[in-house]
Structure formats: C-alpha cells, structure tokens
Design a protein that fits this description.
alpha/beta; binds flavin-adenine dinucleotide; eight-stranded mixed sheet; about 20% strand; FAD/NAD(P)-binding domain
C-alpha cells in the first residue's frame, strides 16, 4: 500500500473463511471494499492445525454454496485442501484481498463519519469495518499449567505430529475434537497417552446412513441461537479422521489410552484429576443417545426410509481407567515428558478502540451488527446460531451483515429530491 491514506467504504479485517465470505457478499452488492489479512488467505487452516487434520464435516457439507470440493462429497477434506479451497474461492470473484498487512488500531473519527484504521502499511479510512479476525485466535492454556521447565508443553494449535514431541508419555488435557484426535494419533504412533476428559458432547459420526451434520440440519439443531444454559463449557468431540468415526472414549481406552477426569492442578510434579470421569462419560453417552432418539422420532414422523441401526445403541463395557480412575499422577514416574493443552481459544479484539464491547470485553452485537454504528463482527461463536463458526454458517452470517451495510449505505447516500 502507498503511504497516503486510502479511503474505502467497507474494510474487512481477516481473510479466513469469514473474510472471504464477507467479500463475496459485498462484491455481489457492489459495495466498494478491501480485505486485509496479516498472513495468507485461510492461514489458520494451514498453520494452526496439525499435519493430518481433516475437516470435521463431510465435503458436501463443510463448504460455501458457490463451489464444491473436488473428490468424494462424503469424504473429509484435508486441511491444506480446505485452505486451497478458500484461495480458489476468492479468485473466482477476484476478491480485493491484500495479504501480509496487519491492522494495528481502529478508532472512530471525531466530527465526521467513519473510522481510521492504522495498519503495518499505512492508514485507511472506512465507513464500515467488519472484524473477521476469527473465533479461535488466541490459544488458551489455563493458569494451572505446571512451571517445570523439563516438561514440554504446547497448545493443540502448535501440535503438528508425534515426531515433534520428545520421547515419552504424553498427557493430553481436553477431550474435544482436537484433544481426542491428537490423543488417538499419538497412541497410534506408539506413545503412551493419558487423556483428560471433561464434560463433552459426542454426537454419532453417522446414524441410519446419514452423517451427523445432516442430522443437525434436518433436526434444525444448527440453527439453535444459543448454547443450552449450563452447557457453555461443554466441548464437542467429533472427528473426520480415518474416514470419520464416532468418538468413543471406551474404545480409545481399549486401544491403550488411559482416560482421566478433568485436570485440577499440578504440584511438585504431580497432576491431580477430578473424580468426574465416569460422570463425564455418562453425560456424553446421554448426549449421544439423545441424538439417536430424536433422529428416530424424526424418521418415524416423516415416514423416512432410512435403515435401522440398533447396534448404534450398544456400548462397550467401562474400562478399568473409568471404573477405578487415576486421581493423581506423578508425571516423572509415569514417564510423562509432554503436555498438550487442547483447552480452546479466546478472541483478541485489542486493536479495536471502539464502543462495541461489554464490561467483560465481549463484543456487544446483534447477529454481528455491533453497538458501535458501522462496526460489525463475523465468525464469532453463536454470532447468530450454532453454525456461525462453521464454514457454511459464516457464509450466511456474512450475507446478513452485507445486507445491513447496503441498507445503511442507502440512508447515508440519501438526498431529498431537489437537494
Ligand atoms: C482445530 C479446529 C478445527 C476446525 N475444523 C472445522 C471444520 O472441520 N469445519 C468447520 O466448518 N469449521 C471448523 N473449525 C471452525 C472454523 O471453521 C475455523 O476456526 C476457521 O478457521 C474460522 O474461520 P474465520 O475466518 O472466522 O477465522 P480464521 O480462520 O481464524 O481467520 C481470521 C484471519 O484473520 C487474520 N487476522 C487476525 N487479526 C488480524 C489483524 N489485526 N489484521 C489483519 N488480519 C488479521 C488471521 O491471520 C486469520 O487469517 C475448526 C476450528 C478449529 C480450531
């Protein structure tokens, strides 16, 4: 960019799937805009995911409406291909994306409309700004993490493959989609693995010959507008790895992973775990069986001819690590040399100096339209519904925001006849 100030109607910050979707809708509505991306398009899919990661949903589902993935629509696309998809998608409509430009600061203009945005390559003035900087931006490692320098500790965002870790056993903390897949990969690579399992949902990968993404669609569950009260901290364990299989903690235990409850603390090289493992697994089963129940009810109500699958209700017996759980673990004695924190992410909007946040610093918005007129958020968890952070979901949220910007522009450009 040139050093002089650029003026643009709408600035989109971030070119992950959210930024690309936003640009498509703005292009359709002829709204002049620019997308700034500090790294590359869909960078998170390239460098914040482990090497073997595939999409959690099948190719027919985890995509934008305007383009299909090459290959098997029921397959699970590898993460690099997902990133390539967004690059190709952006090329389709010549998205005005500038990569390698970081937005450092955003302020409302005084005495005139719009915002001033400082970037690593100059200043931009925009009337509307869409923050599409990602739902999972800053890896979070809880404060209980031990201080021992000899332990190799990384967040799941920095895990790549088993070879990257020093020899020895691994404690994986967190059994959502990332934690279970990483633990499984490490076990298959011959590592001794402890997996700390908290409260979770674990939907069936497929049931009655339909993937769970399809079930959530026909049952209207992608459209839930907020998480159930009390379930805000419940993670979801689902995987497309190795063709896609239901996450089954008992099977993981039978394959050699030692399950433990929620990680509570570390003191002098000893990890302690809550005695909640059996309960967490039982609640996960409830969630799993509950989905089978509503799916069966849907089949009956609609007279759908989907094959019955009674074996989906069969559970393996509880393994010993569940019936007689380990409550404390001397890490050195157990040979644990690494801890992988699969403990989630936070957002980072520090660059936004506008009145769009509540007392806790959370974005204040309605379906992405923020309380600061002209500022928008896209891609946040539950922005409008359960599907908002997912590939297909963000596309629909982006459409809503683009429509809102178009409506605002109509007011901004209005002149009474004769004026
Ligand atoms: C491990 C994992 C697996 C997932 N798997 C799936 C899946 O299979 N299917 C699915 O639908 N969803 C999946 N998701 C959820 C979601 O699709 C991804 O998190 C996706 O990356 C979110 O896209 P986004 O565009 O909202 O954010 P991001 O992909 O994070 O993009 C935001 C972009 O903004 C840029 N940026 C940030 N700050 C600035 C700044 N100040 N200036 C300029 N640029 C900036 C970043 O570099 C980044 O490229 C997964 C998430 C995780 C964590």
């Amino acid at each position: 960019m040139t050093p002089e100030t650029i003026k643009i109607d709408t600035l989109v910050v971030g070119a992950g799937q959210a930024g690309v979707a936003m640009s498509e809708h703005l292009t359709r509505l002829d709204i002049p805009h620019l997308v700034l991306e500090k790294n590359r398009i869909a960078e998170a899919w390239r460098s914040a995911r482990w090497d073997s990661m595939v999409a959690n949903g099948p190719a027919w589902h985890d995509r934008f409406p305007g383009m299909e993935f090459a290959g098997d629509p029921d397959g699970f696309v590898a993460k690099e291909q997902v990133a390539d998809y967004f690059v190709a998608y952006a090329q389709q409509f010549n998205a005005p994306i500038r990569t390698g430009v970081e937005v450092k600061r955003l302020r409302r203009n005084q005495g005139r409309p719009g915002f001033t945005v400082e970037t690593t390559q100059g200043t931009i003035e925009a009337l509307h700004v869409v923050a599409a900087t990602g739902p999972f931006q800053r890896p979070v490692i809880p404060a209980i993490a031990p201080r021992e320098p000899e332990l190799h500790q990384i967040h799941s965002a920095h895990y790549r493959n088993p070879q990257q870790l020093p020899e020895g056993a691994v404690l994986v903390v967190g059994a959502g989609s990332s934690g279970v897949q990483i633990a499984d990969e490490l076990r298959r690579a011959g590592r001794e693995v402890y997996l700390s399992v908290g409260p979770h949902d674990r939907p069936p990968r497929s049931y009655r010959n339909r993937d769970f993404c399809w079930w959530l669609g026909v049952l209207g569950l992608w459209d839930l507008s907020s998480s159930e009260p009390g379930k805000e901290h419940v993670t979801i364990a689902v995987s497309g790895a190795r063709g896609g299989r239901t996450v089954d903690f008992r099977r993981l235990a039978n394959e050699g992973i030692t399950l433990v409850g929620r990680t509570q603390s570390f003191e002098q090289g000893v990890a302690t775990f809550s005695a909640d493992l059996a309960e967490n697994i039982a609640r996960g089963d409830e969630n799993y069986l509950g989905l089978l129940d509503v799916a069966d009810a849907w089949v009956e109500r609609n007279g759908a001819s989907l094959p019955e699958e009674p074996e989906a209700r069969e559970m393996l017996p509880d393994p010993e690590c569940v019936t007689d759980p380990i409550l404390s673990l001397d890490l050195a004695r157990s040979g644990v040399t690494s801890i992988i924190w699969a403990t989630g992410y936070a957002t980072d909007h520090n660059w936004m100096e506008v009145d769009a946040f509540d007392e806790q610093g959370k974005p204040r918005h309605q379906r992405g339209v923020s309380s600061e007129s002209g500022i928008y958020f896209l891609g946040l968890p539950w922005l409008s519904r359960r599907g908002s952070t997912f590939i297909w979901g963000v596309w629909h949220d982006a459409k809503h925001i683009a429509d809102h910007i178009a409506t605002r522009r109509n007011y901004e450009h209005y002149l009474p006849s004769g004026e």
